Amino acid sequence: MNRVYGALKHVTLVLLIILTNYPLYFMLQTSLKSNREMREDFWRLPADPIWENYAAAFKSILFDYTQFDWLCFIKTGAPLFNTMFVAFWSVCGVILFASLAAFAFARYDFILKKPLYYVLLSLLMMPIVLIMVPEYVVVKSLGLLATRFGLILPYIAGSQALAVFMCRTFFEQIPKDLFESAEIDGAGMLRMYRHIAAPLSVPVLVVIGLLVCVQAWNDYIWPLVIVGSDEALYTVTIAMTAFQNEYNIEFGRLMAGFAIGSLPLVILILSMLRYFIQGITSGALKG
Amino acid sequence: MKRRNQALLLLIPTFAFTATFIYGPFLLAFYNAFFSWEEGEYRIFVGLGNFRHLLFEDYLFWHSMKIMAILSVTYIAKVMIVPMLAAVLISRVGNARLRGAYRNLIVIALIVPSVAVYMIWRQIYHPDGELGLANRLFALFGLEPIAWFRDPDTALLTIILTGFPWASGVPMLIYLAGLQNISQDVKEAATIDGVGPLQRFFRMELPLIVGQVRLIAILSVISSVQDFVGVYLLTRGGPAGTTYVPGLLMFDYAIKYNQIGMGCALGVILFLIVLTLTLFIHRFVRTEDYL
Amino acid sequence: MRPEWQRLVGWRAGPVYAVLPESGLVDSCAAEWRRLRGFKGEHMIRLRSEKQPENTSVRIQVIAAIMLLSSACGKSPEAPGNIAPLKTNITQISLVHHVDWYEEDLNVLFGAYHELQPTVVVKQTIFPTQGLEYLLRTRLLTNSAPEIMGCQPPKDTLFGSAGYLLDFETVLDRPNPYVDPSKPWRDVFPRQALEMVRQQDGRIFCLPYDRADYGFLYNASLFERLGLDIPETWGEWMATCGRLRAEGYVPIAWSGEYSAAAVNIARAFIDASFRELEPEINYKTTNPDVRYGLEDQFGDLGERIDPDELYRAYKTGIFDPKGERMQFVFNKFAELSQHFQDHWVTADGYEQADMFLHGKAACFVQGTYAVDPIRDKIRKEFKPEEQWEVSILPIPHFAEENPDFRLGVTRTVGGFGDGLVCSVPSSLKGERLDITLDVLHYMFAPENYRAVYEGSPKVGAPLYEDIPCDPGFKRFWDRAPAILGLVPTERQLQDEWYLHFQAYFLGRLTWEELADRLDHVYEEWLTRLVRKRQVDPRLVEAFEGGVS
Fold first, then answer.
1. Cβ contact, residue pair A125, B14, below 8 Å
2. Which residue has the higher pLDDT, C11 or C426?
3. Torsion of CA C366, C368, C372, C377, to 10 degrees
4. What is the pLDDT of residue C11?
5. Of A167, C85, C188, C539, which is most buried with the most CB atoms under 10 A?
6. What is the pLDDT of residues A156-194, one digit of tens each?
7. Are B111 and A104 inside 8 Å of each other by CB?
8. Is residue B190 part of a domain?
9. ipTM, two decimals
10. What tens digit of pLDDT does each residue of C341-393 get?
11. How many angstroms separate the CA of residue C243 from the nearest CA in chain A?
């Protein structure tokens, strides 16, 4: 019985993984096909891989390697670099500010706690479509138009509610005794945050970072509106529009672009997941 | 819980950001809901006129609400169940390396942008018997090809099935993080007692991750009510309006039809629906400590 | 095919500048030309496009030189004379639009303009269509828009009434120095071009910019192989489609998902059905030149009906959405749709092109702008021996065999889908406005911007000279057709209209139900027009006063 259960567990997981990852597989597979091949049989592996798709995508989201120049990164800012920059600072901002706020909500009682929490929670429910234009006005009046911070700051603001909400759930599961004993030792708020709450909730911080990162990476309309016509600030998603217009999509190149564009994301996600470890809490109480 | 008003200081950055970039704009949108404002015309105060129009005159509003209800229920079920299954199974894998590998392989699917994912799904649902994967599978079992989202009778079902097996990475990680926080003592106790895998889940694990369950429940309610990306990319609300959701209606009013006032009114209605549902979940799915 | 020299020494805006081949001989002649014509500065530009041959042959050099000198001697009548350079500081004018297949040509054009007006730089940016909507909205509402922007009238020009856009009415009354300083600019545009971008209330906020005529792109090689003649009448079309179906092809791939092409064609069918009543509906029109030609089957010229006319036609029952004329349109369309692919009602635009390229479908509906890209695709994706010829046919002439609809001609569908608007932020005043207008004046000179005048998909290139097509179709390009416009122009109502159309063809509605719903849409449209005071109040009183 136990053995059957153990085997079943692995089989289910492997099946889930295969089924979850086929979009990834087809993305890679299509990136090596011509439109014609894709049209004729989407599901077959490319008979004659077209590596030029990758060359074209590389040119448009990184730099034109035929006119290679070491300064091109600094001078113009390749789309991939812009995207990485925006995603990185958004993740940092969200994790830092949201976990501080969540710590306050989870550990302390203060005036207006409940109303403030609900007000923050209500953020999650606001339809984004509607606030786009007024938000643009704010960004413009702060002088952030056509800058990378015009993307980063709204991203940080936009993910606060979700992140606080998620962090709070986890902070509350940390055993109270830990904080109490720290307080007896005379630890202040910030110290307890730094040495107890934050290290013990690394998994949730990783999840938040991942979420924010993927969102910032794949956002399309907001960068388009903020960056406008400044080519030096194009993000990957905007650069990719070169491969599609009203009557034609270069699927192969588009997918190749997505593949190159998400390579740093893969590395980032995998390295973040390394911190997604278990067992810290369970050991901590015994000592 | 300690009463310390200094803790308010920790909230300053969060509220500074959100007040600037979100509350202000949203209040403006709320304000606009009471005006008839087709950009280009002057703003005219109409009181609750926009709401009245939506609730009683708009022929798409209630129709789309019905569709939203169906999609929401199924969406919540999908997001609650499959990632939970994946998380529980992964947490029970003994080998730490293997566990990490399984986890990473599920999460990595996140990198494919939704535009690409829906492009692939469009191909899967291709109505042609040879070009569409779904229809090829049908043919294996000797079934006639169907038109999937091209047919008004099956379009909604197609939308529901899209994304199979719905093992999305983020909810899975949240559950997994919760499961990992269960202390070793509890786990050991359970193994010694010799409870079966199912009982172990319902008796021990589920009660300890109620917080996470509630979190996911609330998040999925919110996104199921407002989200229209899938519908937009797959059917644009068609055929003949059979997959039209309120989120899409709101988008159409606010962006396509230049009727900001009406769009905002619909936004406020959706906001109130989500708020009610969230409070409801908060009340009925309780954790021990708070609220 | 034009002679080679004419291509190389293509005269653009009269003698102001010419595109010259690279050659020392030509250079010295150009200097002489400038001296004779009294031009100072560099008024001739080099051919910049990639199409310039590596080594211009001596023959061409000589011909170019002779042409130059001869043009310098006689003063040609269309010569606008010397254009004085604008005396300004260096100014940058931004143009943001979404028609990416114009980019290259426009860059050449603006390069030439910069030579002419050295103080002005025009910066062109291509924006994806999806984003353009957001861009317009955010930038216009915050007064930070680029000077010139692409738009989709009449939806986007709604911003005009609120004062965000420049009203071209007065601008069009003044002359364009690059064309003819003695005539108002208005007279230079084809009349229909301006009709197409005119708002329902009569004002013009954008200039016609990109023209699209719709027709059937068809696989000419396949037609030849099967020995099929080019169908003209409705009966011939049905017979041809029957043959194609029997041979195992989908005769027509159709995209029924909401799209500009789908709505335009539906509109053209309706127009054709009501064409006979046009003199009654368009009661305000007095100019006989813009009447729909009653005898000429290509006489697709007309004037868009204004709200007053629509109101009157609906109220008096001349235009009856429930009537038999409308039903006839739908019946005819249903007849045609038997030859579409399965599930055409919800097929999208990419799919129909795919079916065509896949060799499954013999034709599909698309704008003329797609001819070049499709030919490119065939050339790129297929081996030489597999390639086929693509050509374009007019929409079938659907009512000629029915004596009740003698004038139900719809052979062409066309219009100016896009426009250029001028934003009026607070900074666009005085000198800057003058410069912006100067750029537009230059750009829309007929020699520079054929898109508007000839319907060519290329800005500077001559009209489809290398596309083999039905001679009838070519004639339409010359006529720059306008249409009655009996489908709601307001986007929301148009969507609703189309939703019912879809539901009908999916078998969800009977004709009676559809007629009721369409009637409701038209009623709502008129109610809105009345509410916005676009219908003459006296007319409203005459009809509604009489009812109550």
1. no
2. C426
3. 0
4. 37
5. A167
6. 999 998 899 888 888 887 888 888 888 888 878 888 888
7. no
8. yes
9. 0.83
10. 888 888 887 788 888 888 889 988 877 777 777 888 888 888 888 888 888 77
11. 25
Of C307, C312, C313, the C-alpha closest to C274 is C313
Distance from C-alpha of B131 to C-alpha of B124, rounded to nearest angstrom: 8
Residues of B with CB under 8 A from a CB of C: 38-42, 59, 127, 147, 149-152, 235-236, 238-241, 252-253, 255-259
Q: Sort out which chain C residues have CB atoms less than 8 A from B241's CB and list them.
A: 499, 502-503
Q: How far C422 CA sits from the closest chain A CA (Å)?
A: 17
Fold of A72-284: MetI-like fold (1.10.3720)
Mean pLDDT across C314-336: 87
Please name the residues between 76 and 95 in chain C that touch chain A, using a CB distance below 8 Å.
94
> Does residue B71 fall inside a structural domain?
yes
C279, pLDDT greater than 60 = yes
Q: Which residue has the tokens 């792109």?
A: C217
Other chains touching B, judged by 3 or more CB pairs under 8 Å: A, C
Chain C nearest-CA residue for B43:
C162
Pick C131's closest partner by Cβ from A140, A221, A249: A221
Query: Is C506 part of the contact surface with chain B (CB cutoff 8 Å)?
Result: yes
Selecting from C127, C138, C358 the residue whose C-beta is nearest the C-beta of A133 gives: C138
Structure tokens at C175: 């002359």
Can you tell me which residue has the tokens 């053995």? Answer: A3
pLDDT in tens, A144-161: 888 888 999 999 999 998
Classify residue B6: in a domain, yes or no.
Answer: no
What is the residue whose two structure tokens read 């194609």?
A: C244
Contact, C400 vs C251, CB < 8 A?
no
**When comparing pLDDT for A124 and B266, which is higher?**
B266
Pick from C141, C159, C257: which is nearest to B238 by CB?
Answer: C257
Confidence at A279, pLDDT banded by 50, 70, 90: very low
pLDDT in tens, B233-254: 888 887 888 899 999 999 888 8
Q: What is the CATH number of the domain that holds B197?
A: 1.10.3720.10
Using CB atoms, which residue from A35, A133, A246 is nearest to C381? A35
Give the nearest partner residue to C135 out of A228, A246, A249, using CB atoms: A228
Cβ contacts of A247 on chain C, cutoff 8 Å:
349-350, 353, 366, 369-370, 373
* b/e A35-68 (16+ beta carbons within 10 angstroms → b): bbbbbbebeeebeeebeebbebbbbbbbbeeeee
Confidence band of A228 (pLDDT split at 50, 70, 90): confident
Whether this model's pTM surpasses 0.90: no
- How does DSSP assign A88-154, residue by residue? HHHHHHHHHHHHHHHHHHHHEE-TTHHHHHHHHHHGGGS-HHHHHHHHHHHHHHTT-TTSSHHHHHH
Q: Which domains does chain C have, with CATH numbers?
A: 4-73 (no CATH), 91-212+415-454 (3.40.190.10), 243-414+476-538 (3.40.190.10)
Domain count, chain B: 1
* Closest alpha carbon to C404 in C336, C329, C335: C329
Say if the Cβ atoms of B255 and C343 lie within 8 Å.
Answer: no
Domain boundaries, chain A: 2-57, 72-284
In a domain, B135, yes or no: no
Asked whether C352 and C254 are in contact (CB, 8 A), the reply is: yes
Average pLDDT, chain B: 85
Percent of residues, chain C, with pLDDT higher than 70: 64
- Structural domain span for residue B218: 36-94+165-284
